[in-house]
Amino acid sequence: MTYRIDTPATLFDMAELSGANTLVGWAVAREMWSGGETFAMRYCDELVGLFGLYPTETGAEAWFNIKKNAAPHMMRLIRDIRLTLASRSYPEIVVICTTDAGRRIAIASGFHLFESDGEITHGKFVGRGQQGSCKPAETGSSITAAANPCRSRQATG
Prior knowledge:
Elements: E1 3-6, H1 11-17, H2 23-35, E2 37-43, E3 46-55, E4 60-66, H3 74-86, E5 93-97, H4 100-108, E6 111-116, E7 121-125, H5 149-152
Parallel strand pairs: 4-5
Antiparallel strand pairs: 1-2, 2-3, 3-4, 5-7, 6-7
């Protein structure tokens, strides 16, 4: 039973997990694949998740797509995401989360979530032992102090 990360992820990997069921979803998946870094996470040759980095003017935007049945592998997947993000030399890595699961993965992966309008949450990667500048979550935000490491200013390991 082995874990493996393949980079770049294949277009078949992207089609399987990145919304290739619509033309828009497929166009976005292809752009993320061709314009950025992609990583396919496998357990015993089965695709359990994808993540990637898409370059921006100030750094990169991270994205994650984990299969629902990957729960038994989540600690390993999060560890691999954290190590990969920390090894990159982008001056800034941000994330935009649109689901509760995405927010949980982002927090566990080392992102400080700092702004939410209820549907979309923004975060910045600070990684282990780094102190990033974070704006506090706005009043009425659905991000609580316990779920928002930015408020406690603690980088988790």
